[in-house]
């Protein structure tokens, strides 16, 4: 055993002894702590005898059954309590760059985001062909077009392709949530 190993063992023993003394002092000074420690000690002893007893079923099977039962009971108890949605979970629509954007929230993240024509509510199609020609002097952008309104360009997001445009809208949603600006655009509840 090297010097560092013996120091580690020595530190562990000292920590255990000091912890035991602190727990013993706590149990003597505060009676409920003594009751808890006695209950915990009896529980450990009972579990030890459970592991030593002989059953027709292997102990590991019984242990797994107990673990599954505890998980099931815990999930049931947790499901009884109401889940509170964050305040911004009702913020699911905004106008950005001329288009009406809608999305949902899943696990606190923006999901299923897309844009609609503000006049006819049709889903818009995109054209990001300007991003594919590197010899053009045209600035990269994505156009969102309404097929119902005779191919009218409803929105245009500068900077990149469709993924970039959707990402820009998501960033704007998160910014409005952080600053609290979204509160002015929530539907009023009657």
- Overall average residue pLDDT: 80
Distance between the termini: 76 Å
What number of domains? 2
Using only C-alpha atoms, the radius of gyration works out to 32 Å
How are helices and strands ordered from N to C? HHHEEEEEEH
pLDDT < 50 stretches: none
Strand content: 15-25%
Structural class: alpha+beta
Strand order of the largest sheet: 1-2-3
Largest sheet: 3 strands, antiparallel
Total number of strands: 6
Number of helices: 4
Estimate percent helicity.
40-55%
Question: Shape from CA axes?
Answer: elongated
Features:
single chain; 190 residues; alpha+beta; 2 domains; three-stranded antiparallel beta sheet; 47% helix; 19% strand
Account of the protein in words:
The chain has 190 residues and is α+β, with helices and mostly antiparallel strands. It folds into 2 domains: 3-80; 87-185, no CATH class. It is 47% helix and 19% strand. The chain has helices at residues 3-29, 31-52, 59-80, 162-179; strands at residues 93-96, 99-106, 109-116, 125-127, 141-146, 152-158. The strands form 2 sheets. Strands 1-2-3 form a 3-stranded antiparallel β-sheet, covered by helices on one side. The chain has a 3-stranded antiparallel β-sheet with strand order 4-5-6. The longest helix has 27 residues, at 3-29.
């Amino acid at each position: 055993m090297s010097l560092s190993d013996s120091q580690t063992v020595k530190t562990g023993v000292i920590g255990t002894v000091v912890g035991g003394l602190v727990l013993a002092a706590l149990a003597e000074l505060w009676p409920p702590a003594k009751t808890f420690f006695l209950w915990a000690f009896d529980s450990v002893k009972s579990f030890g005898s459970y592991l030593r007893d002989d059953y027709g079923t292997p102990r590991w099977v019984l242990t797994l059954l107990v673990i599954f039962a505890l998980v099931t009971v815990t999930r049931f108890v947790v499901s009884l309590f109401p889940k509170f949605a964050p305040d911004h979970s009702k913020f699911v629509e905004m106008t950005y760059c001329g288009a009406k954007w809608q999305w949902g929230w899943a696990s606190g993240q923006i999901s299923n985001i897309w844009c609609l024509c503000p006049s006819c509510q049709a889903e818009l199609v995109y054209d990001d062909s300007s991003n594919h020609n590197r010899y053009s002097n045209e600035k990269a952008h994505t156009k969102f077009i309404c097929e119902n309104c005779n191919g009218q360009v409803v929105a245009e997001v500068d900077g990149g392709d469709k993924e970039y445009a959707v990402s820009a809208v998501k960033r704007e949603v998160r910014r409005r949530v952080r600053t609290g600006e979204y509160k002015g655009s929530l539907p009023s509840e009657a």
